[in-house]
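pinning this so it doesn't scroll away 📌
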Amino acid sequence: MWMICKKEWRQFFSSLTGYIALVIFLLLNGLLFFVFPDTSLLDFGYATLDSFFRLAPWVLLFLVPTITMRSLADEYKAGTFELLKVMPVSAGEIVWGKFLGALLVILLALAPTIIYAVSIQLLSAVGGIDVGSTIGSYIGLFMLGAVFTAAGICASSFTNNTVIAFITGAFVCFLLFNGFEGISKLPVFASGPAYYIEMLGIKMHYASISKGVVDIRDIIYFGGLIAIFLLITQRNIARR
C-alpha cells in the first residue's frame, strides 16, 4: 500500500501540473482572503478566518478533482494498471494507496494556509482569533478534502479519460457539498423533509465542525462517505 502511495505522490509531482495546481490554490486563497474587497479579511475590522473557511471548500472542489483525475484513469490509458494487478497487492491496497497518496497532496496544500491564522493573530490588536473554532474548521476542511479525494478517485476508476474523470469528480463533489442544501430549499420539501435532506449533504456537517464542536456523528458521516466511495472504487478495479 505504501509503495502505491509513494508512486501516487511522485506521479503528481512528475510534471509542472502538480506544482501549478498547488500554486494556484494558494494564490487564489491569498487573493480572496487578503486582496479582493468583498472577501478581504482586512476589511472586516476584527480577527476572523470565517471568510477563508467559507471559500476554501469551493476552491478544493476544483483542486481535488485535478489531483485525483489521473489516479486510475491514467493507469487504464497507459496500460500500467495490468502491472498493478500482477503485483503482490490486493485491490484494497491499491485503492487505499491511491487515496493516501492524493490525501497527502491535499495536506501539503492546506499546511501553508496556517500562516493565515498566524498572521491574523499577530495583526489582531485585541483578543485574537477563536482558537477552538479555527482548529475545528481545519479538521472540517481536512475531512472535506478527504471525502472529495475519495469521490475523485472513485470517478477516476470508471474511465480512462482524465477530462471525464475531472468533470465527474467535480460534479459529485459539488452535489455532495451544495446540492443537497439546494434541494432541501425547494418548496415541495419545505413542510418536513428539508432538514433531513440537508443532513445528507456535507455543508451542514462541515459547518457544525467549524464551530469548534467535533461531534462524533459528523466524524461518522465523513468516514462513512469515504468508505462508500473507496468500496465502490475497489469493486470497480477488482472487476477489471
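📌 and the second one:
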Amino acid sequence: MVEKIKFGTDGWRGVIAEDYTFENLRRTAQGFASYMLAQGKAGQWIVVGHDKRFHSENFAAAVAEVLTGNGLNVWLTDGATPTPVIAFSVVNKKAAGAVNITASHNPPTDNGFKVRNETGGAIDPDGLKQIEAGIPDSVENVQRIPFNEALKAGKIVKFDPAPAYIDHIQKLIDLQPIKDAGLTVMVDTMWGNGAGWFPRLLAGGKTRVIEIHNERNPSFPEMKRPEPIQPNIDVGLKATVDNHADVLIITDGDADRLGVGDENGEFINQLRVYGLLAYYLLEVRGLRGDIVKTLSTTGMLNLLGAQYGVPVHETGVGFKYVAPKMTETNALIGGEESGGYAFRGNVPERDGILAGLYMLDFMVRTNKKPTELLKLLFEKVGGEFFYDRVDSAFSGDRAAREQIILNAKPATIGGLKVTGLITIDGFQFKLEDGGWLLIRFSGTEPILRVYCETRHGEKVQAILQDGLKVAGIQ
C-alpha cells in the first residue's frame, strides 16, 4: 500500500527510517518541485538548508537532486543553518522558495520537510494541499540529477548565508549598546542551529555570552526534545542562576523559536514573551503597525492594540496562517503560542535570533531585568495573565468529538462565565475576565489540545479540567 505523505501546520515530519526515508523524501520533494513548476517557476532558484539532526545534510542533498532534476536550480547552505536565516536567504537571493530539512522542536527520532515561498514565509494551506496532491505514489516518478553532476553543472551552488543575514540584522537593531551594556547573557541553543550566533553577534564589548548545548548531538541530551519549554530548559535555567546571568535566551532546534528565562532562573512563558515584545516595539521603540496573533496566544495583545491604536488580527494556529496575514497587513509583529515571533522589516517567518536580540535591547534601553520588564507589562495591561496547556489522546471519530464540544454549551468554565465561542480553528470559549479556553485537534494524530489564559492564576487547572470535560475526555 502506498504511504500518503500528509502535511501538518508547517510541512511534513516523520520518524527517521520508519516513514521519513530517502524514498519518501524524494517523493515529497517531487511534489514541491511540481508545485513550483505549476507556479511558473521553471528555471528559478530554490534555497535548501538543514538542521543538525541525524542525516540532515544528506537529506538536503537528496532534495537538491530532485529539484534540479525538475529544471530548478538550488542554493544549498554550506552547513546547518537557522530557519530564519534560510528564510531571509530566499529574499536576499531572489529565490522562488525554500526547502528546509528540519523537525524543529520534535524528538530526536524525527526529521522534517518545511517549505517556504518567495517571501521566505510559510506557504498557505491551499498551496500545501497542492504540494500534497503532487506527491507521486512511486519513487519511479521522481526526476533527479546526481548531486555531484548537478554541482559540477552549476545547478547546485553552495553558499554561506551568514554574512548577508548579519548585515540585515544590523539594519534592524543597533547591536553596539547591547555589546557595551556589560550583561551576562546565558544562551541555551538546545544542540541546534542557534549555536554560535549570539557570541558572534555580540562579540567585542563588555557583554559576556555563555552558551550551553552548543555542539552537534542529535540525541539531545538533558532534554526530551529541543523545544524551549520546561522541563527541556531546566538545565539552562539552573545555569542562569549558577552563572549569575541577567537573562536566559533559548533557541529551539532550528532557532526559529525563542524561550526566555529571567534573572532568577524562572521561565517566562511564551505568551508573556509575546506581550513583552509587542510592548517593546510599541512603547520603547515607538513603532506602530498591525499585530497578528493566533487564537492560542495572549489577550494582552488585544489590550495593547487598543491602547496604542493598532489593529489586532486573530488567525488559526500555525504560521501558514500568520505569515500570509502579516504580508497582507504589513504587520509590525506576528506570533504564536509556541514561541515563534516574526517582525516587520524582516521576512514573515519566526526568528528566534532577532526576537532574542530585541529582548536584550529592551533590557538595555530600559535598564531593567526581565522580572522588572514583566512588571511594566502587567501594569500596562491591568494585571497578570496566566497560561497553561494540556494534550490528551482521544478515541473515536473526530467529527463526533467536535459535535460533543458544540453540544456542551457550558455556561461557565473554571467558575468563569462563558461570553462567546469562536470556531475559526478549533473551539475557543471566551471568558468573562478577558481570558479564554481553546480546544483544538492535531492535524496529524489523535491528539486533542486544550489551552487557556486567564487573569486568575488559581483557576488555570480548573479551566483546563473543565475543557477536557467539555471535550468528553473526562
